[in-house]
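Open question from group meeting: does this chain pack into something compact, or does most of it stay loose? Before anyone orders reagents, we agreed to write out a predicted structure and look at it together. Recording both the input and the output here so the notebook holds the full record.
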Amino acid sequence: MKILLTGSTGYIGKRLLSVLLEQGHEVYCLVRDRNRVNQELYTPHIIEADLLKPISPGLIPRDIDAAYYLVHSMSKKGDFTEMEKRSAMNFVSAMNYTSARQIIYLGGIVNADNLSTHLHSRKQVEEILADCKASITVLRAGIVVGSGSASFEIIRDLTEKLPVMIAPAWLNIHTQPIAIRNVIEFLTGVLLKEETFGKTYDLYGADKLTYKEMLQIFAEERGLKRYILTVPVMTPRLSSYWLYFVTSTSYMLARNLVDSMKVETVARPNNLAETLGISLINYRMAIRMAFDKIEQDMVLSTWKDALSSGNNLHSLPYHIQVPQYGCFKDCRYLKAENIQSSIDKIFSIGGNVGWYYADWLWEIRGFIDKLFGGVGLKRGRKHATRLAIGDSLDFWRVLYADHTRNRLLLYAEMKLPGEAWLEFSVSDAGIIRQEATFRPVGLTGRFYWYLMLPFHYFIFRGMLRKIATT
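Structure tokens returned:
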């Protein structure tokens, strides 16, 4: 079958894509920027289009059989409700030029009377997609548990970092977490099943739990003793800042998650799992399965994959050309004692390994970035030794990563009065080249560079020496 997949660079989209390809489908991925796609992992059928703009008729093959709509804008700045509305309308217009029989949409459980802005937007998208001439199958999920999911990583951060939690009262709200494996099974299971056309199903796991119980069970599975005290004085704003500073989430995502978490997302029972022959995974097992993937370094996708940067990094081709003029540079060279060892260090940098020199200064810079609304250092990295284009790496984004050419180029997503790049390369002769480039904006940018110059001298010098030595 010919399948159109939107949101294919996102957390769920990446995982769904690999399963669809394994099942033998011909998949067309609609992406905003083909340069942000890791070509090794993706089908060769890539359609470049921005759903915020009208799509030219014929850009999407007319003989598409079905389409998945996995687009969301919850973590983006601006009026995400309007962006989601516009994206859905443009998608419907494009799909009406095709012969697609089904649209499969993954939204959120919206069974409460008073919906959060995020859940109300999800409901609005459902209504827009229903106007398409193709039949729609709506799947609604609450908390998705899997290695790299936003919910999983937030729960992990809170549980592993805080022995005692003073938490908001909404931790007593009930939800029904579902394993990512079950979500993918449902998404593929309803594909072109005519009995699901025009219907809506809530997706849920085997357990009904409060958020507090989820934290406690997570702690038990990790062998941790944790104390949780809920208080009514934590406002949504305070709760958002609490999540933002303790976890790796962005503030925009934290704020929208808090708004949604205040609403009970208990699913309406249905027989879809029985119809499709899906065995529901309980919460404990979902946690164990997630850590199995993490320990084996087999995390296929994370919630950070689809985020645009805080510096409006929309187009890699523009930023991958490191500017030469109007910039400050710190360029250093050093011969590697062991070439392969140095290459391995470069592609393992950041995350749990750290930055090889004065990590405490990097931590301070990450904390300052958080104070000013940036991403901070907590995002880490997806794999311990592998990097791919588009990966997040602490407060950097990978622009270029070529293990055969021994070159790594990073773009800063921290809050800066300008733009910054960090590049590593190793020549055949074993000469390591490390270059930091900063393009300042106005006098503030220039003042920032000179203020940081003493720190850069020690940090960049020490980092290169560590990389070069065995």
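Observations to bring back to the group:
The radius of gyration is 23 Å.
DSSP finds 14 helices and 19 strands in the chain.
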